[in-house]
Amino acid sequence: MKNTLRQVFHSPKFVIGFVIFAALLLTTIIYPLVVAADPLEMVGNGNFFKPGTYVSVKDSVEGTHYTLNIDVKSGSLDSKISAEDKESMKEWLTKFGGVAEADINLEDVEGLIGLWEANYSESADQPGLTASRKKYFARLNKNIDGILADSDLILARENPDTGELEESATIGSNEFVNTKDVANRRTFILGTDNFGRDVLTELVDATKTSLRVGLIAGVVATIVGLFLGLISGYVGGVVDDLIMFITNLFTVIPSFVLLILISYSVGQNARGVNLVAIIIGLTSWTWTTRSVRSQVISLRNRDHVNLSKLSGHSMMRIVLTDILPYLASYVVMAFILQISSGILAEAQLSMLGLGPSTSTTATLGLMMNWATLYAAPLNGSWWAYFPVVITIALIAFSLNLMNTGLDQVFNPQLRD
Amino acid sequence: MSDKRAQCLTGKGVTKVFGLGDKKTVAVDHVDFDFREGEIISIVGESGSGKTTLSKMLLGLISVSEGEVLFQGKPRDISNGQKKKEYWKGIQAIFQDPFSSYNTFNKIDSVLLDCINMRGGKNLPYEEKFQMMREACSFVNLEFKELTNKYPFELSGGQMQRLMIARIFLLKPKILLADEPTSMIDACSRATILDMLLKLRDEINMTIIFITHDIGLAYYISDSVYIMEHGKFVEHGKAEDVILHPKASYTQRLINDVPKIYEEWDLSTV
Questions:
Q1: Residue-wise pLDDT tens digits, B20-33
Q2: How many C-beta atoms surround the C-beta of residue A403 within 10 A?
Q3: Do B103 and A325 touch (CB under 8 A)?
Q4: Residues ≥6 apart with Cβ < 8 Å to A31
Q5: B12: which strand partners?
Q6: Which of B97, B103, B104 comes nearest A308 by C-beta?
């Protein structure tokens, strides 16, 4: 036993898989201790805020200002004029502005703006352009004018007595705020989702729930599969025929279809996380049953089982001490695969909207479902679904790697 | 065959059929036998002749398709677990491959303790059990102190097979079914193990049913010989009669097939 464990932990595949899985598991345990916030708290008032640090505008305006002699104009131009805008500007200038294409350098924003200012005219004849395109260029021009206008911002505050606006401060374009001075700020490493929840905190919580779903589904599937497989293989005869008939029935009907039907018929309100996990477990035991049965059949005629029978042991004892230990490594591998497929099945179900319907927990599948429903892939909010995809992939990858590693330890023929 | 000795195991038209319809295989085809108490009987045949199937039927590990097996003159009853357990107190076996005969997860102590428990020694004090295990081990020239807390796979093939005999020594069955117990073992250990089996027979007046493909060995050790071909007994009788004056052509072939080098080796060492 000790020797086997040492062998298992010398298999590089198993160790890599184990480290990834342990890292994920530890994160789900340790992260909530560090970040105490409710993972489903709706922080953002709006959809899909980008990842980054958010600082309070009021705090930064009212706090200490520092004047830095830095060119702020090209920075603003860079961030406010997109690559698409630049391409459009180039297109306009070469078509209608009479500028040679060779003179335009898209890297040099200020040069491009200079050319634009010199050549663009809203009233110029622009044959072949649609009205909306013409308006777009006019809007772009106005935008650029706004950035270029070097005017100070004036802050005004309403006088509570008179109701009039009184100027309280002027902010020049070279005034800066040290972010450390800003009292109210919050970093969203992975932005927020469609409900304005912090994606990272939600992701950690969802990973925990999904691992639980996988574990429950894996335990249920393995126990049912092992029990039926042992009985079917060891007892044989009519019992075997009956169990194999049921197993084949479940195998022939795609388990995912069954899963969808059961999930649907259970109903929206009753579908909790645990129930979905049990449903997944109850539809995925067939594979374990079939393989355990075939192993038991080959084991039950071995001499050591015959010897155990001759020693007067009961059937229960023979199954538990002479057959089960020989299957243990196999069952552990099947269990690991069942966890992995349980997590994937939950994700698939939730993507269809048939997963756990609850507002108190998130699962990886539900996060994907929400991201899809609110069109995150279309509006470029990668942070709402990409980290989830990566997490699911990492879980499945690590579990399968562990499984392959174990397989190689227990089946020396597979070692490379 | 001396009819004065009490009947031990008798078979009438014992048959085993595997499969159904076109795929039907008759492994053992209506064999009759009469094994007497204290005899050493050899069942000789080539691979696939149905020896092992017959031995499993005799042990009650697989059912008999047709025919009847009588144990000590009475039809045997192995219809439920309790009755089987009772039957197995009377008949035990040693298997061909010592390496696969043991559960690799159980220690040697538990193998021997199981035997003591089966003989009704469950509630004996540990000292007494220990004494019995030591006695059994020394009977087969093993030192129990060296075996305790070890796993069977840590022993050599010869030691494992001797441990099997120690098991039989503790169980003291009426019949021992030895299914090619020496075929996986080198020639030196083979002689030791055969000696021990004979010694054990003398000690507890046990019938030994020796299943082998080696007709020379059968001649060397047994009182009566049954020659088996394609699931049928083609010839049986006293060992000297059958082997020195074979009637069936199959027996003659088996005798001719004994490698000549074996004779030379046999002469030079014995």
A1: 878 888 888 888 98
A2: 21
A3: yes
A4: A201, A204
A5: B68
A6: B103
